[in-house]
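anyone seen this seq b4? input:
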Amino acid sequence: MRFKDYTWPHNPEIYAVEYRRQIAAHKIPLGGWYLQDLGRTYRIFRGEGIFAGERAYEEFQTLAEVFDQTGPGLLVHPVWRTVSAYFVTLELMEEPLPDYVRYRFSFWEDSTASGGLVEVPVEGEPEGGTDPEIPAGGWGAVHTVRKGETLWGIAWRYGVALTALIAANPQIKNPNLIYPGDQVRIP
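predicted toks r here
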């Protein structure tokens, strides 16, 4: 296994991948809930291992120096796919002995390496983005809500302020609760 310029002398004993999904729960008056799927979120890569031998504690210190570096890096595992990730936790599990160290770690997937929320403006393009379905703004543009969308996401997509979008849509009583098929006017 490798992260940035550090290569483990042997793979961790335990390696787990946690997939996550963001769900919003909206209470319905007089009982019940409406669950809204907001999509997949970052994966968490956790592991546990040991360093053994004369240089066990020095090896852990080297790993701790990699942890202290800022920013994401390339996480390579021989079985799982390679991902860009942040080194989030490193834990020494017990009193280190000169020849034995048990440790635990976790990495969080960095989705900006594969698209994420990074937007690069292109000269000469309208502010609404490059999607041909999206008009460049102005009154009269209407967006039909799709499953999993939020007003914040729609405002970001069209490049308008969330408060302006809410003000332009008085028919939406609760801005936190929109449904697929709802019509949203874009200011």
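Confidence is low (pLDDT under 50) at residues 114-118, 128-138. The chain has two domains: 2-114, 121-187. kinda curious what u guys think
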